[in-house]
Fold these 3 entries.
Entry 1:
Amino acid sequence: TVRWADAYAILSDLEEKCATPIMKLRQVSNAMTVEMHAGLASEGGSKLKMLLSFVDNLPPVVPSWTISRDEEGLYYSLDLAGTNFRVIRVQLGGKEGRVIKKEAKQVSIPPHLIVGTSNDLFEFIAAELANFVASEGEDFHLPVGRQREIGFTFSFPVKEHSFSSGSSIKWTKGFSIIDTGIGVGLDRRQLSQQNGDDITTGRRHCQLRVVGEDVVVELTKAMERKGLEMRVAALVNDTIGTLAGGRYYDPDVVAAVILGNGTNAAYIEQVKAIPKWNGLLPKSGEMVINMEWGSFRSAHLPMTEYDLTLDAESLNPNEQIFEKLISGMYLGEIVRRVLLKMAAEASLFGDTVPPKLEKPFMLSTPDISEMHHDTSSDLRVVGEKLKDVLEITNTCLRERKMVVEVCGIITRRAARLAAAGIVGILKKQGRDASTSDNQRTVVAVDGSLFVHCAIFGKYLEGALREILPHEVFETIVIKLVNDGSGLGAALLAASHSQYI
Ligand code: ADP
């Protein structure tokens, strides 16, 4: 039988340790701003990499952005995010026509390629891309004699040497660097240390590597081998793609946040506020910064024993702390760890600990999101999930309620910390205080955690409302930009076309 007093003691301890009152959120957002300054001051000056991107002319055409042309023509984008990739073609019609037609195709990467070399992977991508190009209909027009151009979104930290090339500096979101070998692939040794479920469940808790090799060169070579005449015109990170895509439709977009498997943010910064930049001044005087905010950490972050052990046992201990508190990759796993403690110390779910509950990453973030959103009076969905996913049968309503409470605490903390991060950016941009003209500020957000977990967005907005002065909050728009990054990459390819 459940020892309820013990279970509630664990719950209230969790609640206390995960608490994010306004004061705490303010401390976190101040710390974020401080780290942003440090990361901009010098290379390696902060946990935040604050990578400069060479995109100084994001769409749309606004004078301060000095874009002198309206994007027009046929462009492609490729978004490589891990276990699948997405290709898009878009016919742009300039200021009037905007996006005339857009087609997309999503392709899963076969498991044997995920464990293979980068060469095989790029070969596969190039072949799929060639098929996609071959299926181009009459609505798409490429002027005679022109090469097709593509924007490549590579959603892992890439330090950009120049706009269209880069070398991967680190894999995150549960991926990590193994050695300096060239190749994208699961590391078999590491994988076997885990329970091997990762590939079959499609969870991306796996090791990948691609280090020091220029991904644009790899892709270009593979396309050449396939006889595909295509030029990589832009290499962008997904946050930057989202910023560009969001801004194409709404000129007030000044930052983008990804809340998916991992989390990251990009924003527009004044070049004069970037001491570590000693190159030419972009025309606009502005530059987009890819923060890599997943690696943010601060003594003010509310950490629990569950977070500490999750981190210690992770593939990248001591790294990506903010991401481990916030992103879809980890929320389900944190909840599992709490429930495991309740099972072991308070006999929640019976006298023996359910074996599945002991398995890392058994509970996914979509699972906890579904349980959390269960509105039935007997929490039927929670009961079914516990049974289907963890093989825990015959749960009583009280146990189900306990599970929902835990899901709520972890999700709420995540969303509120993400909000504090956003306020950190607004502060850095001077948009956290009221101004006479009440400028509108839009933050473009994408990622399945935000898209599919409705309550996440509610918690996030709730926290923004608490932290910001009322009149400022009224000017802030958190805007879902679904697949903004695909369109954004194509737009950036267009604005960096060799033909203009
Ligand atoms: P990526 O961040 O790699 O580009 P996505 O944006 O598709 O990928 O995000 C995938 C993540 O979104 C998964 O880790 C998952 O945890 C989370 N996710 C997907 N569906 C849901 C859902 N219904 N509720 C909560 N989280 C979800």
Entry 2:
Amino acid sequence: GTDSPVACISLEDVSFGYEEEKMVLEHLSFEIKTGEQVTMTGRTGAGKSTVFKLLLGLYRPQKGCVKIYGQDAYLLPDSIRRCLFGCVEQSFKRVPGTVLEQITLSDPMISREDAVEAAKLAGLHEVIAGMEQGYDTPCTDALFSQGQWQLLSIARAVAAKPSILLLDEITANLDVGTEQEVLYALRRAGENRTVVSISHRLYEKMGGRELVIG
Ligand code: ATP
Ligand code: MG
């Protein structure tokens, strides 16, 4: 009806292919409401990660429209996009610099306090604070364990306090002990946010609506 609030995310009859003659998504429509927790499932190659790229406005669909709070995703300014989305991927992309810079990516809009808050939410603050140089420790490949890198990527994703969290297969390589820690971090990170995850065992355990792609 007219008084229903605008959807957080909506796809309206979207068809998209990286190449014109080879469509990946065809006539895809769905809506995700603000604060909803949704898991996308579907066979490998179905186009789940492609949906994320469309949400992030990296491509424009050949047909239909991807909308974020009613605005065309492809036309959103980068500055707004960064406030809207936090992304966690399977592998952490380390940048040169300190632990702090891993979290802030040197974004002047993200304060040290924001970074500490994000690390606390991810369950990594104690570990970082326990280092001799704390958040100013130069970051090397050996500094964190595999699970801790994943927690660090969660901290990075929430540092700018995004309203939408996108999680792409993030627990695929974790052992059972670490998985639990990441699960707790994700629960905290997902509070008061819209969360769209791509199927992985962990998030399925957490429930949320299933959205089948393909
Ligand atoms: P998986 O579960 O394996 O991660 P997925 O559902 O995430 O799969 P996508 O990565 O979205 O699938 O890929 C969908 C299709 O688009 C595949 O056929 C893939 O080869 C193709 N594809 C993905 N990225 C590109 C690209 N940058 N250029 C061309 N084709 C691409
Ligand atoms: Mg994928």
Entry 3:
Amino acid sequence: ATITQSYQERASLPKTSPVASYLLRLIAAKQTNLCVSADVSTTRELLQLAEEVGDSICMLKTHADIINDFGPRTIEGLKEIAAKKHFLVFEDRKFGDIGSTVQKQFTAGPLQIVRWANIINAHIFPGPAIITALSQAAHDAVKPPLLRSLLILAEMSSAGNLMTGSYTEQCVVEARKNPEFVMGFIAQRTLNEQPGDNFITMTPGVQIGATGDGLGQQYNTPEKVIGEAGTDIIIVGRGVYGAQDKRAKAEEYRVRAWKAYEGRIGA
Ligand code: 5FU
């Protein structure tokens, strides 16, 4: 059903996580289902990219551990630009350890992810306690714990990855058990298969005019993933930050992904 429902309609469906509702409304208001992946190596580049593409995105994805000078200045800068330009911040940390360890990785260390990332993601190969551990850590660290939510990695974009079949199915089963905290998936197609499912699917491995990067990455177009595979948000890294004019490139991706969405819902 979510294939033909608008973002706006889905924002107020029952059992939708608070962050998912907020994000769906933001997407509808800004008319953007684009997330830019800011895989740059300095705070200066990160904040400059956020400023440049901020008006065209619903979300900025980070890998905080590749920023050479990550620190309080990075966090404050990101928060300020996100508030000003109205987008959420997603740290692509891919947690994958026992509950006790991921709680520490989420809240402590030099990155203190829980302080600044609205959205995080995790693998479920260690078992479902990873979900409850991250949820508990978010509740303990952020008062009120409103804007904290988890994406489960259900499928990956890279060639030969092992996240298929029953593994992917189990991700959906665990998500359905935790609808308050789990907002959706990283996947290559929508996984909303049962009536009542309203998970948000975010899809990396999107670039126009490329099929791969020679290191396993595989690319699809916005039309393929949003229009045909029924996912909700495209995640674009090098396709945007690798361009000379990043602002214009982000707009190009935004328009293409938005048209693919409108075509799919029959708007
Ligand atoms: F979970 C995943 C995945 O399945 N594929 C990915 O490419 C995450 N990614 C991330 O999206 C990856 O770590 C990069 O940060 C980004 C894709 O970057 P690109 O430059 O668009 O290939």
